[in-house]
Each structure stands twice: as structure tokens, then as C-alpha cells.
Amino acid sequence: MKSGSLYNKRLFTQFTTTIIFCFALFMANAQQQKFYTIKGKIEGLSKATIYLSCSDETYSFQDSVNSIDGSFIFSGRLKEPVMYMLKTNQTQNATLLFYLEPVNVSINGSKDSLNKAIVKGSASNIAYKEWAQTWMSIASQAGPMYKRLDSATQNGKINASPEERKVFDDGMQSLSVQLNAAVMAFIKKYPQSPVSPFIIYDRYITYPDPEMAKKSFSMLGVAAKNSLYGKRITEYQRIAAKTGIGASPDFMLKDSSGKMVKLSSLRGNYVLVDFWASWCVPCRKENPNIVAAYRRFHEKGFDIISVSLDTQKEAWLKAIQMDGLTWKHVSDLKGWDSELVKEFGIKVVPTSFLLDRNGKVIAGNLRGTALHDKLEQLFMP
Q1: How would you class 217 by CB atoms within 10 Å of its CB: exposed for 0-12, middle for 13-18, buried for 19 or more?
Q2: What range defines the domain where residue 59 resides?
Q3: Does 247 reside within a domain?
Q4: Residue 99 burial (CB < 10 Å; 0-12/13-18/19+)?
Q5: Angle (nearest 5°) at CA 11 between 7 and 12
Q6: Cβ distance 218 to 204 under 8 Å?
Q7: Please, what are the averages of pLDDT over each run of 10 residues along the chain (381 residues)?
């Protein structure tokens, strides 16, 4: 009886300790988070459902309210400013993106122009709106360039001429210079804002540019570096080192026949490692350029291995055949859930890096004439 009683006491003590520990963790987390309240009115709505949501790589949240006349109130806890989205069941694809902070926020807009609703109370959102206007003024210039490139491949032409492609590449390079300057100017103005690391992540992590990511991140203040996206950039830089300049990445995946192919088996040649997918429109538009490079330099010692983010084998193989991609192709058909994609920190396709004959990375994301120029330097100095 005594031993049983002692055992029960011990169990009770362990259980009580666990409960106290869990409660302490809960209270610590609750203290870190602060309340927000959103009050708003969307003119033109009647008996509608209004949705508030946030969804990114590590955090997902959704709330909704029923509104008779377009008025609504949301409240909750938030640790730090985060990008949120507001939409309704009566505005179809129209949404409002805004930075929410743990403060009192007001939103007023119209059903017909929800994306232009006025958000007050969030200092981070003021900075974000400023950036959004800058970004749109630059991004809007890209549309006509893509249209001209598309028209150049019509009337029976398979590929744009070298001259037409150069005009496109030069135009995109000019926009890239403008964008980089705009990012640096914004960060200089808002070094402590959580919007600044969000922009760095969006521009230089999602579309990999390690050099610009490092340069712009160094300009951030301590608060911004410790924000949600600041921490993600730090983690990305750790992962990106695996495919950065001077790294020697390696992997092994199955080809279309089920045979294992190892990247390091291609050493001795310059190798382009290209992450793509059949559903990726920019990838498919870039494929003719890669095909042309392969034809020009393969006999000189240039090889390619394409890693597909497809999940359907039939679609993958059909795209390979349609685009005339005659080099090595591998995939685990897991899409974005691929362990290799996560290990190498691939955030967008197309993404590529060029290896030297020893398997070391010497360049990344060479597209258009930039790929040909680099290969000419290597094979035709």
C-alpha cells in the first residue's frame, strides 16, 4: 500500500509539474501577443460575409463575420505586424492586402474597389502602401515588353531573333536596376520597419539574388532583423549557402525511366542545374533559349540537368517532348514538397545555377542572353 501510494504521489507530482510548465508557456506566449481591433465599412455590401485571413509559410489564420450593411469588426491577438488579406463573398477575386499591427485599425472602402480601401491606424501599412505604389510604377513597364516578345514568336516563328531577345533582356535589366535602387531607397528610409525585410524576402529570396539580399539586409535595424521576415532571411541565407557561389551542391534523383542520376556524375563539364515545371509559364518561355545554348555549347563541354517540380509524370514528360529538351531530367514528382526543393531553398521557378567542371557554383539564374554571354566567356575567351 505504501509503495503504491508513493507511486501515485510521484505521478501526481509529475502531472502537476507538466501542467504548470504548459501554463507558463501559454502565458509567456500570450504576454508576447497584443490585441488588435479592426472596425470597418465596405459600401455597397448587403448581407455579405467578410473574411480576414493571413497565410504564409509558417502561419495560417482565418476569421469571418456576417454583415448586413457592410459594417464589420474583427479582434484578436498579434505578436508583430503581418500581412493580412480582407475579402468578401460578393467581391469575387477583389481583395485588400494590408499590414495589420496589434493596434486599433479602421478600414473604409467600396465593394467595387476593395483593393483601394483606406486603412488607418497601422504605421506599417502606410510604409507598405508607399512601396506598393513604387513597385507598380516599375512592374507595369514589364507587361508591354512581354507582349512584344510574344508577338516576335508569332506568324510561324518558333523563337525570337537574337536581336529581339536582346531588346527584351536589356529592357528587363533596366527594370531590375530601377527596382534595386527603389528597394535600397525604401530600406534607407525605413530601416526599422517590418515591411523592409518583407520586401527583401519578396524581391531577393523568392526570386533569388543572394548578393542583393545580403547587401540590403545589412542596412536593416535590429528590430527589422528580428521581425518575422528578418528571421526568415537569416534562415534562408544559411540554406542558400548550399547553392551559393563557391558551393559544391550534390543530389540524387530518379530520371523519367526510374534510373537514379547523381549531379556529381556530370563533373568534368560545365553544368546548368535548372529547376522548372511544365505548368510554369516563364520556364516554358525560357526553354527555347536554353535549347539554343545547349545546341551551341554541348559539344564543347556544356551539360544540363533539369529538376522538375511537377507532380504528374505525364505532364512532365509531355513538356519535355514539346519543348525539345534533350538533356537529363530528374524529379521526385513531389512538387513544392520535394525534400531537395526545401534543402536548396527553392522559392520560385525557374531557378538555376551554373557549375564549373569541378562542380562548384560559379553563377546563378542566368537567363536570356546572359546565359549565352557567360558560356561564351567560358568556351570562347
Answers
A1: buried
A2: 34-121
A3: no
A4: buried
A5: 115
A6: no
A7: 48 48 42 85 95 78 94 94 93 88 96 94 96 94 84 64 84 92 98 97 87 94 95 88 91 96 98 98 95 97 98 98 98 97 92 97 94 95 73
Backbone angles phi and psi of 305, in degrees to 5: -130, 120
Neighbours of 81 (CB within 10 A): 24
Please give the Cα distance from 299 to 289 (Å, whole number). 17
Which one, of 261, 277, 256, lies nearest residue 352 by Cα?
A: 277
Pick from 269, 286, 340, 262: which is nearest to 308 by CA? Answer: 340
Q: CB under 8 Å to 255, separation ≥6 — which residues?
A: 261, 328, 329, 330
CB contact at 8 A, 335 and 314? no
> Is 235 among the domain residues?
yes
H or E, element range at 49? strand 48-55
Classify strands 104-110 and 118-120 as parallel, antiparallel or unpaired: antiparallel
- Per-residue cell: 368: 536570356
Q: What are the C-alpha distances in Å from 325 to residues 160, 288, 292, 303?
A: 18, 9, 10, 12
Residue 355's domain is classified under what CATH number?
3.40.30.10
Nine-digit cell at 296? Answer: 551551341
Number of domains in the chain: 4
Within a domain: residue 333? Answer: yes
Determine the pLDDT at residue 21. Answer: 43
Locus of grid cell 524581391: 203
Torsion of CA 199, 290, 258, 299, to 10 degrees: -140
Q: How far apart are CA 345 and CA 342, in angstroms?
A: 5
Instruction: Give dist(CA 221, CA 243) in Å, integer.
Output: 27
